[in-house]
């Protein structure tokens, strides 16, 4: 329970408790200030990339702009929608903020420090379960988004939150598998055991740059981790959760004042925390060349510098890449990231587990061949599935056309117990309870499709070619229907 | 409590109170979403109790699997099906379930009582022995799972795969497999009526 921190070697007394409390407080304060600076940084960098000036009024270079925004949000009226579930509505922002902070608690931000004969690590906690705690907290952070959308009692937030939870649950697996690769190679020196503790992972890659896990795991887990973590964070290009063109603001549409600010706080906190986690897992954390002058300072500087690179990359990606479509997002997660990371994990396992290099190569060759066969089988299965979809003479084809983003807002009836149709669910259009008088089937795409607020598939709206495709799909569906009707007439 | 220090006791009682409140919430709330949230609360309490027993791995897995995945799926289903309003509790879906629940509950309570006052109650922090050496507990668990009990472990995983595939097959049944299988569901009412007319 206590972990590996040298602080507790002599038991727990008042001094230790005070040190722990100070660490918690400092970590919290640092994270808050970092969030403030991160918001400013993101706005500044992105305005540079878009040839704008960005915030430049409050404080030098607009540094205090986020503070000003925060104060403004504090004094705004706090609205709670009439149809909302009041308790859950108020609870949700905290549920998304707290896990974000708790993850930061296990990140080592520097080396060990000795103050008044007390030696301790610069991290709030170092539990033996380490990275598992990280996974636990990142899976719990789904609740904030999910409940926020649901409790708002409104349609767009609900869609946003359902998207969010589906997305986060899907990418959770890829994150876990890439972290498992890291754990596999983080072997405690002198033993043949791996370690889960974040501090242990840092120590195992401290020797040189080539010991960093990014190289030891062979880059692939790192790339997968970065993609999956971006999706977990709901940051662009995976920000379908709050796609402004489609969902107004996503899960936080109904939120205002400080509750709204809490969601943003959580989002930026998560971005910083996850960058820090990526540095810890793959880039050696605070390790780097140090100097005799102020020896405790250099690890912190190295750590901050590495984290800053990641933060810049997030902003850069946001400026550079358009948003993915929902089906592309799910394809990327399930059909690419998870199989690749699983296969890579097997190969790494073979390399780590076998004592001689020859055996290791043999094993990994066998596993690569095995993965190849499985991949071929899978791709064959996909192909057969597509063929079948084409063969079945009905709406099957409509399902594979790119109008996944389509959504019939009228069918989203929260109160009436109807089943709603959501974008991107492989189940396709669900059957809804419809009143008898309605003639039009809302399964069909009518008129100038693709221009409704929910259909905007990419950031720039739907390309005309896709609209044409959708119309074709519609015609096909009509034909099929007609055939069916004719058939029934014959019978 | 032999061998339990004051912080241990404090943690235990706080976690136990959280567990009990959550469990009561699951049973007493008529609102499905709030009941699911109470369940999460109980799961967290149990996770803290696991940590208190120095079973870190179980605590983490408890939160990752149950709180992070299973209850999320509960909520997902509740939200998708739109049953997120107060349910009518007047009619019992299963006959005699209240009596059965009462009996089972009393039985479990009796078991807890027996194990609490029984002669094998040792007062030690964990039953198997101390695993206080940091990640040693996780290590011994891993060794047991992947050496001694490898076969049951693999069989369990096969069972889970079968369950998943069975679910997929059941969902897709009715139209010969493939994405076309859900066509019927996606047709409008008048189409279904015309089919029924046949």
Oligomer: heterodimer
Distance between the termini of chain B: 74 Å
Basic shape of chain A: globular
State the major sheet of chain B: none
Could you report the average pLDDT of chain A, rounded to the nearest whole number?
A: 77
What class do helices, strands and sheet pairing of chain B give?
Answer: mainly alpha
- Give the averaged pLDDT of chain B, no decimals: 75
Biggest beta-sheet profile of chain A: 2 strands, antiparallel
CATH class annotation of the largest domain in chain B: Mainly Alpha
**Any idea what the radius of gyration of chain B is?**
23 Å
Helix content of chain B: over 70%
**What does the overall shape of chain B look like?**
globular
Number of helices of chain A: 16
Explain this structure.
- The complex is a heterodimer of chains A (491) and B (198).
- The termini of chain A are far apart.
- In chain A, helix 3 packs parallel to helix 11 (257-282), helix 4 runs antiparallel to helix 6 and helix 6 runs parallel beside helix 13.
- Among the domains of chain A are: 82-109 and 125-353, no CATH class; 398-421 and 443-490, no CATH class.
- Residues 396-461 of chain A have low confidence and may be disordered.
- Chain A has helices at 14-49, 65-74, 86-105, 131-140, 142-151, 155-185, 198-204, 213-216, 220-232, 244-247, 257-282, 297-320, 326-353, 357-391, 396-400, 464-490, and strands at residues 112-115, 118-121.
- In chain A, strand 1 and strand 2 form a beta hairpin.
- With 491 residues, chain A is mostly helical.
- A two-stranded antiparallel sheet of chain A has the order 1-2.
- The longest helix of chain A has 36 residues, at 14-49.
- Chain B has 198 residues and is mainly α.
- Residues 124-133 and 176-198 of chain B have low confidence and may be disordered.
- Chain B has two domains: 6-135, NADH-ubiquinone/plastoquinone oxidoreductase chain 6, subunit NuoJ (Four Helix Bundle (Hemerythrin (Met), subunit A), Up-down Bundle); 149-198, no CATH class.
- Chain B is globular, with a radius of gyration of 23 Å.
- Helix content of chain B is 71%, strand content 0%.
- Chain B has helices at 6-28, 32-52, 56-81, 97-117, 136-148, 150-172, 183-186, 189-197.
- Chain B contains eight helices and no strands.
- The longest helix of chain B is centred in the middle third of the chain and has 26 residues, at 56-81.
- In chain B, helix 1 runs antiparallel to helix 2 and helix 2 (32-52) packs antiparallel against helix 3.
- The termini of chain B are far apart.
- Chains A and B meet through helix 4, helix 5, helix 6, helix 14 and helix 15 of A and helix 2, helix 3, helix 5, helix 7 and helix 8 of B.
């Amino acid at each position: 329970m206590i972990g590996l921190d040298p602080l507790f070697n002599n038991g727990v007394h008042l001094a230790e408790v005070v040190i722990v409390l100070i660490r918690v407080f400092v970590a919290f304060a640092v994270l808050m200030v970092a969030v403030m600076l991160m918001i400013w940084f993101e706005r500044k960098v992105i305005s540079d990339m878009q040839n704008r000036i960005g915030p430049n009024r409050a404080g030098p270079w607009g540094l205090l702009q986020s503070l000003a925004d925060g104060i403004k949000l504090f004094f705004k009226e706090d609205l709670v929608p009439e149809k909302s579930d009041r308790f859950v509505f108020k609870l949700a922002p905290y549920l998304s903020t707290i896990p974000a902070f708790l993850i930061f608690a296990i990140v080592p931000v520097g080396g060990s420090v000795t103050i008044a004969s007390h030696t301790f690590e610069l991290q709030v906690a170092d539990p033996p379960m380490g990275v598992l705690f990280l996974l636990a907290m990142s899976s719990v952070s789904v609740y904030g988004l999910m409940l926020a959308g649901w409790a708002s009692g409104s349609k767009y937030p609900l869609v946003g939150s359902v998207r969010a939870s589906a997305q986060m649950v899907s990418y959770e697996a890829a994150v876990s598998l890439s972290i498992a690769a890291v754990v596999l190679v983080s072997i405690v020196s002198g033993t043949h055991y791996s370690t889960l503790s974040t501090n242990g992972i840092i120590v195992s890659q401290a020797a040189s740059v080539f010991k960093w896990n990014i190289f030891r795991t062979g880059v692939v887990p790192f790339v997968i981790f970065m993609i999956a973590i971006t999706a977990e964070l709901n940051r662009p290009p995976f920000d379908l959760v709050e796609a402004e063109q489609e969902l107004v603001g996503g899960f936080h549409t109904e939120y205002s004042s400080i509750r709204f600010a809490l969601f943003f706080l959580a989002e930026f906190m998560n971005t910083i925390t996850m960058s820090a986690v990526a540095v810890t897992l793959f880039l050696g954390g605070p390790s780097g060349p140090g100097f005799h002058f102020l020896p405790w300072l250099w690890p912190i500087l190295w750590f901050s510098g590495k984290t800053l690179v990641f933060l810049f990359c997030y902003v850069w990606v946001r400026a550079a890449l358009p948003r993915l479509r929902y089906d592309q997002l799910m394809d990327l997660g399930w059909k690419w990231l998870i199989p690749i990371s699983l296969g890579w994990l097997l190969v790494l396992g073979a390399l780590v587990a076998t004592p001689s290099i020859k055996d290791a190569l043999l094993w990994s060759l066998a596993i690569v061949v095995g993965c190849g066969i499985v991949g071929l089988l899978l791709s064959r299965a996909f192909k057969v599935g597509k063929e079948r979809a084409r063969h079945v003479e009905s709406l099957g084809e409509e399902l594979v056309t790119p109008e996944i983003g389509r959504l019939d807002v009228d069918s989203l009836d929260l109160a009436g117990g109807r089943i709603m149709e959501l974008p991107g669910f492989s189940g396709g259009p669900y059957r809804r309870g419809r009143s008898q008088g309605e003639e039009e089937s809302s399964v069909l795409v009518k008129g100038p499709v693709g221009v409704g607020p929910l259909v905007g598939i990419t950031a720039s709206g739907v390309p005309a070619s896709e609209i044409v495709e959708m119309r074709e799909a519609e015609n096909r569906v009509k034909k099929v229907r007609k055939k069916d009707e004719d058939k029934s007439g014959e019978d | 409590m032999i061998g339990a220090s004051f912080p241990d006791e404090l943690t235990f009682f706080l976690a136990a109170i959280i567990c009990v409140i959550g469990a009561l919430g699951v049973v007493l709330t008529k609102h499905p979403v709030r009941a699911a949230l109470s369940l999460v609360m109980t799961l967290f309490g149990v996770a803290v109790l696991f940590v208190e027993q120095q079973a870190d791995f179980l605590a983490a897995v408890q939160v990752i699997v149950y709180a992070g995945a299973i209850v999320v799926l509960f909520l997902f289903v509740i939200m998708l099906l739109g049953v997120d309003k107060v349910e009518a509790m007047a009619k019992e879906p299963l006959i005699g379930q209240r009596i059965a629940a009462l009996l089972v509950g009393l039985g479990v309570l009796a078991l807890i009582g027996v194990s609490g006052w029984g002669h094998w109650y040792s007062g030690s922090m964990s039953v198997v022995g101390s695993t206080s050496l940091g990640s040693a507990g996780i290590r011994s668990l891993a060794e047991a799972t992947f050496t001694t009990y490898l076969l049951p472990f693999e069989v369990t995983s096969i069972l889970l795969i079968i369950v998943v595939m069975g679910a997929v097959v059941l969902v897709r049944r009715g139209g010969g497999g493939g994405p076309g299988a859900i066509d019927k569901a996606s047709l409008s009412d008048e189409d279904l009526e015309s089919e029924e007319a046949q």
